[in-house]
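Tutorial handout. Part one gives the primary structure; part two gives the three-dimensional structure as tokens.
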Amino acid sequence: MLKLVSGILKPTSGSVRVEGRVSALIELGAGFHPEISGRENIFINGIMLGLSKREVEKRFDRIVEFAGIGPYLDQPVKSFSSGMYVRLGFAVAVHVDPDILLIDEVLAVGDEEFTQRCIAKIQELKYRGVTMLFVTHQLDHVRNLCDRALWLNEGVVAGIGDPVRVVDDYLQSVSGTRVDREVPEKPIEVEKAVVASSEETDADPMDEERWGSGEIVIRSVAIVDDQGRELVALGASTSVVVEMELVVREPQTDVVFGIGIYHADGTLVYGTNTDIEGFVAEEVANDGVIRFRIKSLDLVAGSYRLDVAAHTRNGRAYDYRRGSLRFVVGSRVHDVGVYRPPHEWEFEGVRFKKIDDQHRYVPASIVETMRELESEQPGKPNTRKKRDSPNGSS
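Part two.
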């Protein structure tokens, strides 16, 4: 498919339309000449990818720095290891400023440090608006890097849409537990069936979606305070408990429970699960309750959604509830972002006046007026009002 998009192959039927400069990370280093140096190959490869010699010269230092093979740059490429080939090929391809970047399993090659550098570069390109077509069997990369996912099974589209949903469909199929999405094998007597349509809709992203194989069901989800009272609107730095009530339809030993907190715009604020934090289920055979306690929910004011899930260690969902709850965090502090870390200010060499809590969130000009009024008659807040009264009475 990548070779069709890049123009290496022609389709036997149908057509492929591509708009913009394409850079392909398909067979990295395939255009390198083994008898000449890495330096010369950078220029040749860059020109093959559509750059002029001057444009390659402008990017040359950045390419070499990213590849990390400076000491060997003037050696013949035939002396390079396969890892050095990949590094140099990737470095050239991502620095041609493509509109469309095609990536084929390149993140599976090289050491951990280089892989992390590649992921950071891909995130940067995403931020700049580059369209990326990424083909891989590394499911975590699909979940974490992709905005949409396409599952191809022997050349036929088996699923397309949200990455988490498509990856789960794939895992359900591989494990042999994927159920018919129209008529669930195990109807679940909750407000919705766990197994839901995987087709994309224009629904509100804060609305609940739900899917899974159904052996374990999260029957209810609530955010409660320390006294067990259910909350919907929270104050800043509130102590809360996420409470999940379970129904076990079939006992399982491979079970992970997870939560994710998302801002209304879809930004992941925080996510974790029992496997990440070192808890291994011995057996989940009985109904029960899982509680996730947050001593201080240090979120900036805004609307948020809560995702909860019960799944296997490889990510196959028993019950995934996206947007199971909405909640609102209120605050009189007008800071920005999503997270408010505990903090304090210190000043050295400069002077600031501390506004007391009573006036902290009042505009500075009004605070000064209030201070002037209070200083006129300290300890007598009603004096001015009496003075302004025609008869001297309040």
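Part three, for discussion. The first helix runs from residue 2 to 6. DSSP finds nine helices and 14 strands in the chain.
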